[in-house]
Inverse folding.
């Protein structure tokens, strides 16, 4: 039976019902585990994901094996958005950062829907622009801001993308996402916990004070948050040239 709106993914739920009914037969719900790779660099892009309760991370890996997250996708977005640009190969790795469910769609069906449905195409292209802005902001953030600020930004972004205050996450995985040593991340997370902003216990993080955590973050969080919220303004979404 085809899925119906609301699906739990903001992009799909923003698609007009007249277009969604044509897309729905191509959608199915899947479950992704933490650390599971959904894309490997250079492989054929065969599936597009619309996260519901999981978070996907785009990873840049260097020749020496070091890596850092350069962007992430949650319930606000689309994993594999390159398919909207008729790209057939995955440019970088993407793994599941927080376990949960996503809606999967065959990449060829997704590309055809983008070509056929005006509103769906506009949303997809505007999302691609916002994701590019996120990647640019993340690169600047990783270069210019201290680890505690970056950790606070990352935790807030993850909270937005799963739609809840608590999610499972080990400090080892957080260090991997931030491209830092685990010992350094432990100190940064400890500072946030001592300040009463988060609680870390048994591999799970709970955000206790989102406002305080944003104050401890750099300006990058608000820049990224505002950019994505503009996707869901009806007037902006109907105008592909709006910026």
């Amino acid at each position: 039976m085809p899925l119906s709106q609301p699906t739990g993914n903001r992009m799909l739920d923003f698609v007009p019902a007249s277009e969604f009914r044509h897309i729905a037969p191509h959608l199915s719900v899947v479950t992704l585990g933490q650390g599971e790779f959904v894309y490997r660099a250079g492989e054929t892009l065969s599936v597009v994901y619309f996260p519901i309760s999981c978070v996907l991370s785009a990873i840049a890996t260097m020749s020496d094996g070091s890596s850092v997250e350069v962007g992430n996708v949650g319930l606000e977005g689309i994993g594999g958005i390159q398919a909207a640009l008729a790209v057939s190969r995955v440019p970088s790795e993407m793994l599941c950062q927080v376990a949960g469910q996503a809606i999967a769609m065959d990449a060829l069906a997704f590309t055809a829907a983008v070509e056929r449905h005006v509103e769906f195409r506009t949303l997809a292209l505007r999302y691609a622009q916002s994701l590019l802005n996120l990647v640019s902001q993340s690169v600047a953030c990783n270069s210019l801001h201290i680890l505690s600020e970056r950790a606070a930004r990352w935790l807030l972004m993850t909270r937005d993308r799963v739609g809840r205050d608590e999610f499972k996450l080990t400090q080892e995985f957080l260090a991997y996402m931030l491209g830092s040593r685990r010992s350094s991340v432990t100190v940064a997370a400890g500072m946030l916990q001592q300040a009463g902003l988060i609680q870390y216990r048994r591999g799970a993080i709970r955000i206790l004070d989102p406002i305080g955590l944003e104050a401890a973050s750099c300006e990058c969080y608000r820049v990224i948050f505002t950019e994505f919220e503009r996707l869901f303004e009806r007037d902006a979404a109907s105008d592909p040239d709006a910026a």
